[in-house]
């Protein structure tokens, strides 16, 4: 059986620890290739927030692409992938996805994911959200993407940021067609 492929995009918004946790969780998926597209500012944020270098990232994925390589495999609908996650998703990247303005490999891969009707999961990172941000989030949802903001589940009583990052990454993985369930669930108050 051929390996499944998942595209992970990283844009220049805060949230590097969730990105790293997501890539680590994806490493445990059997027969999954992770194809990584990291923007220049995504890499700068990863270095600033988590001390992660491009070489470190390459060790957490099957293949890493230069964001300027619009001729790379993920730019085509014939590149078979189970879906794509953009973690974190800056408001600039969100605007590019909504408008179809594919001026980078990350944006083109997201555009292809939508046009091929594959799952696209976005973790937007901005606070507070402006009316324009909310309009773009609504628009991308209407286009078929799943929006997963980095909001912890307090009912799980997270004690550390690492637990919160693990929760958020697990929610993102759950939204992808990988068949994974959350390691915790709400069981009600009674």
Give a structural overview:
The chain contains seven helices and six strands. The protein has helices at 16-26, 40-50, 54-58, 91-99, 105-115, 131-142, 161-175, and strands at residues 4-10, 32-38, 63-66, 83-89, 120-124, 146-147. β1 (4-10), α1 (16-26) and β2 form a beta-alpha-beta unit. α1 (16-26) crosses α2 and α4 (91-99) crosses α6. The protein is globular and about 55 Å long.
Multimeric status of the protein = single chain
CATH level-four homologous superfamily name? Flavin prenyltransferase-like
Distance between the termini: 45 Å
CATH T-level fold name: Rossmann fold
Which residue ranges are poorly predicted, with pLDDT under 50 across at least 5 consecutive positions?
Answer: none
Give the SSE layout:
Blueprint: E1 4-10, H1 16-26, E2 32-38, H2 40-50, H3 54-58, E3 63-66, E4 83-89, H4 91-99, H5 105-115, E5 120-124, H6 131-142, E6 146-147, H7 161-175
Parallel strand pairs: 1-2, 1-4, 2-3, 4-5, 5-6
GO molecular function: flavin prenyltransferase activity
Binding site for dimethylallyl phosphate: 155, 171
Keywords: Flavoprotein, FMN, Prenyltransferase, Transferase
Key structural traits:
single chain, 190 residues, alpha/beta, Rossmann fold, six-stranded parallel sheet, 7 helices, 39% helix
What's the gist of this structure?
The protein has helices spanning 16-26, 40-50, 54-58, 91-99, 105-115, 131-142, 161-175; strands at residues 4-10, 32-38, 63-66, 83-89, 120-124, 146-147.
